Fold this protein.
Amino acid sequence: MYKKIKSRVFEIIEVGKSLPSRIFDVFIIIMIILTLITVIAETFDIPNFWQDIFNKFEIVSVIVFTVEYILRVWTADLLHSELSPLRARLKYITSFMAIIDLLAILPFYLPFFIKIDLRALRALRVIRLLRVFKINRYTSALSTIAQVFKNKASQLVSSMLVVGLLMIIASILMYNIESAAQPDKFANAFDALWWAIATLTTVGYGDVYPITVAGKILSIIIAILGIGMVAVPTGIITAGFSEVLDKQKSDKDDKKYCPYCGHKLDD
């Protein structure tokens, strides 16, 4: 009986195609969206009546997310059936989504264990925004994005390193060229780095710009290079999306899926 209940709970809380699982997924997504709405609403000067409602909703949402977290830890041995129950739970607890789940509810419980200043508590409440990442578990679109970044992580890191080095070199060169002519605008390499970032990303706020001939020539070169360098990560991500979508289509054609958890079933 215990194992049957546990298996049924696991089938419901894991993303699946059964009606109870879908209802659970939609319910959690609605709770996350409502949390985001309350966080935004609290930045306005709202009446005490609505503030009380938001506070009560926060208590309800924390209870819901806490129960969900506990149930996921409890059924972790079914998710990682190849491991012992203890190791399976430890693996789940240290996973990215489990850490997000914990951080999303932690600020509510901290004052019960640690004496904390109200201003610090207010700042910690912003961590509730992390609940938005929980949607990743319930939507295939966000899961696809996460898979793309995971598959292309090494290429993206390499391209970003090149962009970072280019920005550092450009900022140092611009500082040495413009610091004498504009000591207030290019007081140090960090000020020049702000210019390099704005130029390489093709934003160009116009608050800092070169006035010397050499500085303008360097700015033209960096702006042209920036167009190409910023396009590199975009190309990598686009190729990654194409690969993941093709693989998903191929898997869907060749494999069957569990109606409860959505995992692929072997032939």
User: Anything to note?
Assistant: DSSP finds eleven helices and two strands in the chain. The radius of gyration is 25 Å. The chain has a mean pLDDT of 79.
